[in-house]
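Bug #77: duplicate submission created two jobs. Keeping one. Sequence:
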Amino acid sequence: MKISRRWIQNFFDSELQSTQEVADALTFHAFEIDGIEKVGDPSNAETSDEVLDVKVTPNRGHDCLSHRGIAGELSAILKLPLKVDPWAGKPDFSKATDAVSITLEDPALSPRYIAAYIKSVKVAPSPAWLVQALAAMGQRSINNVVDATNMVMFNTGQPLHAFDAGKLEQDNGKYHIVVRKARAGEKLLALDNKEYELKDSMLVIADGVADVPVGIAGIKGGTPAGITEATTDIIIESANFNGVLVRKTAQALKLRTDASSRFEQGVSPELAGYGMRQVVDLVTSIASGELIGFADVYPAPQEMKRVSVSVDKINQILGTKLTGAEVSDVFQRLQFAYKEENDLFDVEVPFQRLDIVIAEDLVEEVGRIVGYDKVPAEPLPSMPKQPEVNLNFYTAEHVRKQLTDMGYSEVFTSVFADKGEVAVLNKVDSVRPYLRANLVDGLNDALKKNIPNKDLRGLKEVKLFEIGSIWKGGKEEISAGIVTEKDKAQEEPLAMHAPKEALTQYEDLPLSTAVRYQPFSKYPYIVRDIAMWTPAGTEPDAVSKMIADQAGDLCVKISLFDQFQKAEKTSLAFRLIFQSFERTLTEVEVNEIMEKVSAALKEKGFEIR
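Kept job's structure:
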């Protein structure tokens, strides 16, 4: 989540510390910071800004993917009261309208939907301050109405969307919005000008009168009701959608947005009210317009939760000696309402803190705000006995080392197969619905795929092995299998490879060595061989370097594959592999490179064979 320093400063009367100190405060008490970026004109105090890239953890995505959420964290950590709080109070939607009606097909998938009907807006470019604020978020300004919805989303964490009411159909002068599952075959041209084919597992916002989708719920609006300069009347949506369904839809459509990333984390339906109240105020202030009223459908309002924890439990878990006064201070800084009696705190969980469910969650809050550096260090107790060697791990490492020493390369093939004894209930695809009963089939497939690339790898023979689980005879067991170009694939239970005499020697446990792998090219390679007579005593490495200098970057590998002495001359033969990471090479260009290599070798006095 990008957080603008200028933006976050608006929440406080007191001047914040330096941006680095703010970053440190968040790092030690809440979230890591990926970096700090300077934006705007550094010589202009009114436009310069610093943006923090905050790594909000998944358990806090429901409240901290917003400036208000991060401001709340800083308020608690730095003991700075909030000057403004868009989450304070209770939003008032008493100004209702029957010009817009809402139908929720399944409240479990859409717990709340609020629509605001505003007439006579003036769509125009946004004011400079709004353009600048969105630019700090990496967001391009579109127009004052759309920018207002984005601004409030980044501020409060509530995604919003505006529809052009003039593009929706009416029934007796009234609009009808339906939140329903898409019908198989329905399509939507989204605001990114791409057409998406919808499935009946996806949730859409539909024009209830025309019975056509105008948006993909929680993800993207559609062009059929998009805001343009000609728009005069709008309907603003502030809703809550099922996070799991939004995630699955976004993945299926390959369409992840700022809105979907928030709904995926789970957002309180209460937040929809706060987002709506703020966006209406902002739109009417920068785009004029008259608020006709609201339509708020909220079948099962979120229940307020209470969680209790004692000071003794907090100290027992953290290993601290905190007092009731210190715990009380933490809850006050976090703006948690509570009742205290005999060092037992009964906390009213704020609507946005969906992560606080049990007493241990409150303990975590106390620990991180007080600071984990305040938790005393305690030495770990001594081990009562020597750690036991895990037989499977030890044996696998031993076999792995033996086979790699013998020139074998390890492969990892799929555990799913097109035949076997154990069928998979949730199969990956319709082709491989079973768990594998052997390693042989996968090893043979891997061998076929690797043989064509052995020249590129500089191998004379492909030799592969795999250590993995198989399912046969009604049980799961670990096997080790090998295959080479010369020998058929074979496997045995891993236990048969165990060197029993060494299992009790913990200090002899071999460990795998780490290898740094390089990316490979998806384009085919071309092989060329070149042999030459050289004076006796000529070093192959020197010739190899000469060839490399002439062959250039397209020559990715040079290997000596033949060498013999005859009279006063030495014959050297090299294999050159040419490959590009950007395109398919042609025979013509490789031949030209080889001619250049040959010319350089001849100039050196070598005789090309």
